[in-house]
Amino acid sequence: GENMYVYSPSSLTVGKATVAESTEVPNVELLTSSGTYMVKKTGPHFVLIVGGGGSGWGRGQNANNGGGGAGGACFYCVTLTKGQQLPYTIGGGGGQVTNSPKGNGGGASTFNGISAPGAGQYGTPGNWLAMAGPQGEGTAHSGGLSVIQGYGAGGNTAWDRNSGQIGYAGQSGVIIVIS
């Protein structure tokens, strides 16, 4: 039938179309510092861009405090040509603060002119694909989680009796290219 899906080790059939199984392993590249990306092969490239997370914030032990928001995310597909050189920027995480009514926002990450925003100053996420930093009265809050573990998450906040309320730094963003 028209909606029949058949899979065998050598091909996939969808309706009347048959697609041979590819033996080529996709290339996955993790870009963690700004630079220029050299395209290694012509064809479709899937790009995930994550902005920097914001720092936590807070004024004191029993005041309103909050974790930093996660950096925004953007995913897209583009056809690139071998040898192209594409500029990219990795957004930094918002820097640590102490006894501050607001945290520092994260920086935007950009790949070939496409951008994912960093998190805002008050635990706000970079966009709808990112998580806000929880907030409220108390001594500690976690930062918002990112779409990629280890990159773009918001900073936590915690009370330290010697230093006061510390809003820890957010994580730097990342770009992942799959070709």
Widest sheet, order of strands = 4-17-6-9
Largest sheet: 4 strands, antiparallel
What is the H/E string? EEEEEEEEEEEEEEEEE
Percent of residues in helices comes to: under 10%
What features would you describe in this structure?
This protein is mainly beta and 179 residues long. It is built from no helices and 17 strands. The chain has strands at 5-8, 11-14, 17-20, 28-31, 35-38, 43-50, 57-58, 64-66, 73-80, 85-89, 97-98, 109-111, 114-116, 135-137, 157-160, 164-167, 174-178. Residues 1-14 have low confidence and may be disordered.
What's the short story on this structure?
The protein is mainly beta and 179 residues long.
Describe the SSE topology.
Elements (H helix, E strand, L loop, with lengths): L4 E4 L2 E4 L2 E4 L7 E4 L3 E4 L4 E8 L6 E2 L5 E3 L6 E8 L4 E5 L7 E2 L10 E3 L2 E3 L18 E3 L19 E4 L3 E4 L6 E5 L1
Antiparallel strand pairs: 1-2, 2-3, 4-17, 5-10, 6-9, 6-17, 7-8, 8-14, 10-12, 11-16, 12-13, 15-16
